[in-house]
Write a structure and sequence with these properties.
The chain is mainly alpha-helical. It has a domain of 67 residues. Helix 10 runs parallel beside helix 12, helix 15 packs antiparallel against helix 16 and helix 16 crosses helix 17. The longest helix is centred in the first third of the chain and has 36 residues. The protein is elongated. 33% of the residues are buried.
Length: 339
């Protein structure tokens, strides 16, 4: 048994060493070759000879994958003609076939890797095939496919929200929103439809879109989301109405406040700091006097900032009933002086 283990270990280490030396050799060759190749202007029809080490042959599998990785890393740091040259090299070397092979694999991590390579190398011809995986049961494949259709089509790529049945986790939403920020905004025609999606996370994501891009036209749909079964959707609806809401929204939030849980009450108060008016004076004064003591300071700040003569009312309340209202008044007065 010991002899078998020793022999197996020896074989494993030898194979690993040979693979390492092979990778090192191709790295040294390709990095030098790439630096020379990028000096040419391929727009002028320059002929490019494919090196033997990078031809589409079984023995060159490791080298071709290294070439793909390096081209992607290089393209991330380039723009304009230089970036197009990188794409030209990728296509001229026939590396898209390696990426498509991974994309067509039944193994999820290979498929996700293939999608990543194809959209990073701007292989627009693969868009329709990738589009089919925006609702994949595998979350990693699904995220890469969704990222890809946005890279190919910009805001129009959001059409995958129409058919999405799987949830979007927070990381997926953050990544997609970050990608959209680099694009010219547009294509919000279907936003009202997305806000009524049966998938909670699609509604939440759509509310974030409405908030970030201030889509005032969906105020009614966003307001309806205040009654959504999902607490996360209700919380995001409150945040969205802070950006796109009006006096009616402030009144709706004030009416919702007594029956909302502690977490949502905090979100409502955060919103009212921005959109409350004199119409909410009665509600705010009542909550200041009779509501949760933990919220008194924030409510006092809203009264002072959003209600006519609010600071004077706080002062009078503090003089009439010292504890704890006098201390709260002094604190708010000090904050306003600093601002």
């Amino acid at each position: 048994m010991i002899a078998i283990i020793l022999v197996a270990t020896s074989i494993y280490l030898r194979v690993k060493k040979r693979r390492f030396l092979q990778e090192k050799k191709i790295q040294d060759f390709f990095d030098h070759w790439l630096s020379q190749a990028l000096l040419d202007d391929f727009s002028g029809g320059v002929e490019l000879q494919v090196p033997e080490e990078l031809k589409d042959l079984p023995r060159n599998k490791i080298g071709r994958q290294y070439a793909i990785n390096q081209l992607i890393n290089t393209k991330k740091n380039l723009i304009g003609v230089a970036a197009r040259n990188v794409i030209y090299l990728y296509e001229h070397l026939g590396l898209q076939s390696a990426s498509m092979a991974k994309f067509n694999s039944a193994v999820w991590h290979r498929k996700a890797k293939g999608i990543y390579e194809l959209y990073m190398m701007e292989q627009q011809s693969a868009e329709q095939q990738i589009q089919k995986y925006t609702n994949s049961s595998n979350e990693y494949v699904r995220l890469e496919a969704q990222t890809a259709v946005l890279a190919f089509g910009g805001f129009k790529g959001l059409r995958f929200l129409n058919t999405l049945t799987h949830p979007m986790n927070n990381w997926q939403q953050v990544k997609l929103l970050d990608q959209l920020l680099a694009l010219d905004p547009g294509h919000f025609e279907e936003l009202p439809k997305w806000l009524q999606s049966p998938v909670d996370s699609v509604v939440e994501f759509s509310l974030k879109l409405a908030e970030i891009y201030q889509q005032m036209q969906v105020k009614a749909e966003a307001t309806a989301c205040l009654e959504h079964p999902s607490p996360k959707v209700r919380e995001q609806a409150i945040k969205t109405l802070t950006r796109i809401g009006d006096e009616e929204s402030a009144a709706t939030l004030a009416q919702m406040y007594p029956t909302a849980g502690d977490h949502l009450q905090k979100a409502i108060l955060d919103a009212l700091e921005h959109i409350a008016t004199d119409n909410e004076r009665g509600f705010l004064q009542r909550e200041y006097e009779q509501g949760d003591p933990a919220n008194q300071l924030q409510i006092a700040r809203i009264i002072a900032n959003c209600c006519t003569g609010g600071l004077q009312w706080l002062q009078q309340k503090g003089e009439a009933d010292a504890a704890p209202y006098h201390q709260i008044f002094l604190h708010v007065k000090y904050q306003l002086a600093r601002e």
